[in-house]
UniProtKB/TrEMBL annotation:
It comes from the Bacteria. InterPro entries: Phage_B3_Orf6. Pfam families: DUF3164. This is DUF3164 domain-containing protein.
Length: 220
């Protein structure tokens, strides 16, 4: 009896061997359907990732070009207003703002130095953490945990130069000579490795407050 005939035969009339043959066919069909579904999923997944990757790369390149043009033109405008007033821009000028005439939009261009620490920094970081632990852990565990977190590396494996600089200023107010000494030594371990230029655009909202027009994907 052919398979087609078996499939059309009432199940109650099937022998054990015929039933096994029908079940084997059903299992094969299920496996084929599952394989087809997996293959379709795999194709769709690869297409999704590939298309999204290309789109993100294209937009990232576009934004990079926009940033470069915007910064260069902003710097040129900043130089022009100095020239109009018979002045020369300061070479160390790090931040400037350009606003429209009705004060509803502004552009802020900000240059920031990038820092890194020498290997010796770890010695002073460890000494500072030990001093903090000795002085504050028993008195206020929450405060100690906050101080300790300031001296930890960030997700990129770097120390946060800004936080350490702020902490150094606060330590001077405390007046602890041992801490001051270690923070001064840590400060000497910082090296300027370059600068980064940032540009931010703001507009006033319905409450006349400045609102950042963010290009961060997570904020859209």
């Amino acid at each position: 009896m052919s398979l087609v005939e078996l499939l059309n035969k009432p199940i109650a009339e099937l022998s054990s061997a015929e039933l096994e043959q029908v079940m084997a066919h059903k299992r094969a069909e299920e496996r084929k359907a599952l394989d087809t579904a997996r293959e379709a999923y795999q194709q769709d997944k690869e297409a999704y990732i590939g298309q999204l990757l290309d789109a993100f790369k294209e937009q990232a390149e576009t934004l990079k070009k926009i940033k470069g043009i915007a910064i260069n033109e902003g710097l040129a405008l900043n130089n022009r207003i100095y020239e109009i007033n018979g002045k020369t821009p300061k070479e160390d000028q790090k931040t400037f703002t350009i606003k429209n005439e009705d004060d509803t939009a502004r552009v802020v261009i900000d240059r920031q130095e990038r820092f890194e620490f020498t290997e010796e920094a770890q010695v002073h970081i460890t000494a500072i953490k030990d001093l903090f632990k000795e002085k504050f852990e028993q008195r206020n565990k929450g405060f100690y945990a906050l101080l300790d977190s300031i001296l930890m590396r960030n997700s990129k494996g770097d120390y946060d130069a800004k936080l350490l600089t702020k902490a150094r200023l606060q330590v001077r107010k405390i007046g602890d000579e041992a801490l001051i000494s270690e923070f001064d030594k840590l400060q000497d371990c910082m090296r300027v490795v370059g600068t980064s230029t940032y540009i931010r655009v703001y507009e006033r909202d319905e409450n006349k407050k400045w609102r950042d027009i963010s290009l961060n994907f997570s904020s859209i």
